[in-house]
């Protein structure tokens, strides 16, 4: 699958709780994003002049046909603040799909999807594709946020019959604490019952580091979709270096990732 650069039109800008917004985007004709799979991303840029030259990277939330796709975001900086203000009919320049995706479902293995904050999109996409393939019973979602408002698109999980477990720092939904508070007992249960599970995770780096420690301690296979600042998406700027084990001390999130085997990432 080859990435391409193309123009899209904003079809909808849906405001969600917790400051999140969902952009539904459409191209005039078929694009390679139609073949995108969970974990891949696009680079987006509006007509922002010289103030913001670089596009912003976003995981693909869904790609329902050969023209349309959607992203979920939250305004953290100037680029996302401007994206939050776009209106239907506005146009954006897109490059994608880019990056290495999550592995596909494996026979006899139950996938535990672990999402934190804006790390939800690739795992939501994975759950959607599992539902479309009739595999909803083979995935479970573990989703954490600061409070109930940080947990979005929950109706989709219910509609897809995906088992969902929540954690919030203030205890307003699910267990009180980080998402690892919900995940750890599930991993221990799988160990006691001899159940084959695999963890697919995306979220803030501290969350991913905590998930990594949990799975390595228990010998559970895991893949982490990392969040790094990306200026190009093609490995040219070298700004998204990830410390790894192996012959080379670093690999790049945009071209070698964003999905990495948890055993590969060189974190404490």
Automatic annotation (TrEMBL):
<keyword id="KW-0249">Electron transport</keyword>
<keyword id="KW-0285">Flavoprotein</keyword>
<feature type="domain" description="FAD-binding FR-type">
    <location>
        <begin position="3"/>
        <end position="104"/>
    </location>
</feature>
<comment type="similarity">
    <text>Belongs to the PyrK family.</text>
</comment>
<protein>
    <submittedName>
        <fullName>Dihydroorotate dehydrogenase electron transfer subunit</fullName>
    </submittedName>
</protein>
<dbReference type="InterPro" id="IPR019480">
    <property type="entry name" value="Dihydroorotate_DH_Fe-S-bd"/>
</dbReference>
<dbReference type="InterPro" id="IPR017927">
    <property type="entry name" value="FAD-bd_FR_type"/>
</dbReference>
<dbReference type="InterPro" id="IPR050353">
    <property type="entry name" value="PyrK_electron_transfer"/>
</dbReference>
<keyword id="KW-0274">FAD</keyword>
<dbReference type="InterPro" id="IPR017938">
    <property type="entry name" value="Riboflavin_synthase-like_b-brl"/>
</dbReference>
<keyword id="KW-0411">Iron-sulfur</keyword>
<dbReference type="InterPro" id="IPR039261">
    <property type="entry name" value="FNR_nucleotide-bd"/>
</dbReference>
<keyword id="KW-0408">Iron</keyword>
<keyword id="KW-0813">Transport</keyword>
<keyword id="KW-0001">2Fe-2S</keyword>
<dbReference type="InterPro" id="IPR001433">
    <property type="entry name" value="OxRdtase_FAD/NAD-bd"/>
</dbReference>
<dbReference type="InterPro" id="IPR012165">
    <property type="entry name" value="Cyt_c3_hydrogenase_gsu"/>
</dbReference>
<dbReference type="Pfam" id="PF00175">
    <property type="entry name" value="NAD_binding_1"/>
</dbReference>
<dbReference type="Pfam" id="PF10418">
    <property type="entry name" value="DHODB_Fe-S_bind"/>
</dbReference>
<dbReference type="InterPro" id="IPR037117">
    <property type="entry name" value="Dihydroorotate_DH_ele_sf"/>
</dbReference>
<keyword id="KW-0479">Metal-binding</keyword>
């Amino acid at each position: 699958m080859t990435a391409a650069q193309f123009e899209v039109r904003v079809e909808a800008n849906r405001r969600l709780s917790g400051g999140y917004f969902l952009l539904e985007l459409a191209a005039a004709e078929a694009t390679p994003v139609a073949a995108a799979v969970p974990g891949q991303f696009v680079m987006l840029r509006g007509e922002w002049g010289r103030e913001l030259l670089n596009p912003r990277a976003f995981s693909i939330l869904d790609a329902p046909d050969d023209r349309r796709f959607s992203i979920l975001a939250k305004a953290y900086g100037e680029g996302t603040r401007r994206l939050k203000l776009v209106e239907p009919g506005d146009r954006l320049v897109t490059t994608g799909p880019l990056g290495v995706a999550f592995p596909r479902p494996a026979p006899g293995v139950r996938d535990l999807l672990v999402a934190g904050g804006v790390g939800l999109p690739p795992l939501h996409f994975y759950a959607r594709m599992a539902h479309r393939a009739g595999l909803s019973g083979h995935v479970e979602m573990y989703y954490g946020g600061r409070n109930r408002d940080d947990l979005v698109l929950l109706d989709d999980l219910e509609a897809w019959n995906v088992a969902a477990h929540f954690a919030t720092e203030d205890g307003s939904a699910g267990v009180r604490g980080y998402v690892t508070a919900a995940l750890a007992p599930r991993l221990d249960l799988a160990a006691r019952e001899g159940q084959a599970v695999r963890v697919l995770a995306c979220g803030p780096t501290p969350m991913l580091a905590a998930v990594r420690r949990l799975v390595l301690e228990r010998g559970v296979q895991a893949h982490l979709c990392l969040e790094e600042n990306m200026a190009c998406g093609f490995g040219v700027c070298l700004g998204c270096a990830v410390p790894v084990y192996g012959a080379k001390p670093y690999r790049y999130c945009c071209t070698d990732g964003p999905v990495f085997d948890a055993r590969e990432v060189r974190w404490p």
